Amino acid sequence: MAQPVGVPRLVLTPGSVARAVVLVAAWLIALAVLARARGSLVLFGLGVVGAALTLPLVGYLSRWVPRWLAILLVSLVAAGAVGLIGYRAVDEVDRQTDRVADAIDESVTRIESTPRYSDLADRLDLQQRASEVTKTLREDVSLDASRLSELAPTLASGASEIFIIWLFAVMMLAAGPPFVQAFIRLFPSPVTRARMQQVISVAHTRSTRYVGLMLLRAAALFGLTFVAAASLDLRVPTVLGLTVAFLSLYPCIGLFVGGVIFALAGALRWPDLVGPIVVLSVVLQALDVIYVQQRIERRSVAVRSLLLVVATLVGWEVEGLRGVLIATVAMIFLVAVIEEGMAIRDGSQPDPGLAVLPAVALEADPDALPPFP
């Protein structure tokens, strides 16, 4: 049968087979190396994230002090702040976990002593189920002093990893900008280099601004939730505050979900307030979307909740909480890159490539410089 015209014919030669085998082997070796170096790469990724988020502050301080001193000051302050906040959060969550267990025991006892619900509690075996939950909270979540010897290796490993992440962050604060410039210089065209320079610079500025503004809003919501929980005499104000603050990082849905969790947590003590709290969370979510979130996105970048949820799920599946941090920050930066690139293509942002075109044309032909508007 004749070969159709224009259709390439597959020809296997010893050279093509050898190249295919080498390519597949190279990919397998690369995957094996990445799998073995996964832990170190994750720590390096966390260091890159920390350096990227604190680089604007280093640049701001560099106006008055030498850059190496600005890097040292920012890294030490960031390490101290993260350590202090982490210690206080863990301590509060540990103490309030015991309070949650006590509150569950008291609530179950009160329900069983009520004639209206005692039969239902017996049929559901509520006492046994509550005992299993409280036992898990006290033995697996709470940091009892008797478990410190068991947790000592884990705590030591975590401390060493935090120190390594800090070192990576300091290194990237010093060497990160030259690395980016070296990457941009790999492109042969000056026009492409100019565009890449603007896209990366603007995307970094917008993504760090987005993260900073969202963290400020989360801190404000943490304070409001903590005050509300303490006013209602709930036993876990810090846990509820941290939960609502974390969920608020997901725009359009996070504040509502946090309000529902707050209502469920308060149901044991104030069951009549569940409905009003849910309605209030709906109203606050709507006001947040209309007034707060839009202002944040206008000053930074618009990131949809679906993208953040996907990044969270992928990061958690790959590397747990550390993977979530890396994946979400990478997703925000990627959205900012796409947004700036599309703006340059559509003309809503000035094309930096046009500024270097006259110099490129002059270098190619000094006697023929095309006109530019």
Question: Short description, anyone?
Answer:
By secondary structure, the protein is mainly alpha-helical.
Structure characterization notes:
The protein is mostly helical. It folds into two domains: 38-142 and 153-178, no CATH class; 187-357, no CATH class. It is 80% helix and 0% strand. The chain contains twelve helices and no strands. α3 (67-113) packs antiparallel against α5 (126-141). It starts with 13 loop residues before the first helix and ends in a 9-residue tail after the last helix.
SSE order and pairing:
Blueprint: H1 14-36, H2 38-61, H3 67-113, H4 118-123, H5 126-141, H6 148-184, H7 190-231, H8 237-247, H9 254-266, H10 274-299, H11 305-346, H12 352-364
Whole-angstrom Rg: 28 Å
Order of helices and strands: HHHHHHHHHHHH
Give the fraction of residues assigned to helices.
over 70%
Tally of structural domains: 2
Average pLDDT, all residues: 78
N- to C-terminal distance: 59 Å
Helix and strand composition category: mainly alpha
Residue stretches low in confidence (pLDDT < 50, at least 5 long) are 364-373
Q: Got a strand count?
A: 0
The quaternary state of the protein chains shown equals single chain
